[in-house]
Amino acid sequence: MNEERYILFDQYLQGELTVDEKNNFEKQLNEDAEFASAFESFKEMHFQLENKFGQEAEREIFAENLTRISDKYFNNKKTKVVSLKPWYFAVAASIAIMFGLFFFDYNHYPNFEDYNHPESAYFTERGVSEETLKKAEDNFNGKRYEKAIPLFESILKENNSPEIRYFYGISLLQVGKYVKAEDIFKELETGNSAYKEKAKWNLALSKLKQGKYAECKEILQTISQDYEDYDEVERLLEELE
Amino acid sequence: MSQNKIHPDQKYIDGLAANDSVVIEMIYKKFAPKAVLFITNNSGDKDQAQDVIQEVLILLFNQAKAKTLQLTCPFDAYFFLLCKRRWLNELKKSSNKGVTIYENVVSINESAHELIAQAEEFDEKQKLFDTMFLKLGEKCQEVLKLSFTLKSMEEVAQKLNVTYGYVRKKKSLCVGQLTEWIQEAKNFNSLKNN
């Protein structure tokens, strides 16, 4: 093993060489293909080590979170298919009773915030100022709805697409401009865009936020079972019972 | 880097890299069912499907963290193909008998295949790296781990109770050793494959 070479490689990567040494080193890289390729491999190994150990902690946190979500997902699926064993009911019932004792009457009505998870916007529209679009997207995703609203309004003058209208509507809902928001959702709901069902869901959320539970329920019942977040719909309907 | 335009589904990759639970849950909800169905239709069970999906998502996380993943095709196709190929490899490993595969024809997407090849190469590389790293002496492993976790080599020296000069030299040589072994393994593999 060419020890000196590796020590030199490392010194170069750490920026520890003098100007002269550095120039020499780079000259050799240019002239000596074998030297250059050995350095490339060394550098790549360095990167791989950095990637492996520098992010070990993050990787562990990710793996834990992933396992949790995965277990939740697969168990959910199982309980849907496999019929519950009787003792399961007993356990579930006693847990329910315990919870009931703790929380009885505290949470009579479902809470808007529990269901309020606006998806992130990723605009790819063309024909409008990309800068405004990007700003609107950033403000929306950063939950700065007050700032996003005027931007959406100016975009809509040029491009009245369902996507922009949908995110504009959500922003209005977030800041409590219900009438305007609901107008937009109702419009989208009658259209035939990809936002049809999503619009209904947001219309229901708007009612929920205003405490109009009966209206909320009525709207929920019109949402198609094919809606991608239909389990949220079911959950809210159950809570409204 | 490929000239292809990055697909809007890159948001799933970014979400994985950021460990964003909402995105991860969405991936399960939207994309897992297809993979599960494929695996359970091809002599696997739910638990095996769960493992395959989890392994693929960890691979994507690692790739995203190494900033080597730019999605140029829909996530759906990419994710499904990765799961499928991983499962077929499992099957191949566990039985030497021919395996009949039941599947619907999936649309073949050029850039998806290119990305799959990249992902598998990335995976191979990582596995090779892990194997070779474990071949290093204990001291080497320790020095490298600390060198790339702690902020400075001074800290590493302090922690190991040795001189700065020693850890610097040791680190360079250990990285060098690892580089050589991996190079040899690669050369061997390319001989084998040719």
TrEMBL record, chain A:
SUPFAM superfamilies: TPR-like. The chain crosses the membrane at residues 87-104. Keywords: Membrane, Transmembrane, Transmembrane helix. Gene3D superfamilies: Tetratricopeptide repeat domain (1.25.40.10). InterPro entries: TPR-like_helical_dom_sf (IPR011990). It comes from the Bacteria. This is Tetratricopeptide repeat protein. It comes from Flavobacterium chungbukense.
Automatic annotation (TrEMBL), chain B:
Gene3D superfamilies: 1.10.1740.10, Winged helix-like DNA-binding domain superfamily/Winged helix DNA-binding domain. Keywords: Sigma factor, Transcription, Transcription regulation. The keyword Cytoplasm does not apply. InterPro entries: RNA_pol_sigma-70-like (IPR039425), RNA_pol_sigma-70_dom (IPR014284), RNA_pol_sigma_r2 (IPR013325), RNA_pol_sigma_r3/r4-like (IPR013324), WH-like_DNA-bd_sf (IPR036388). It comes from the Bacteria. Belongs to the sigma-70 factor family. ECF subfamily. This is RNA polymerase subunit sigma-24. It comes from Flavobacterium chungbukense.
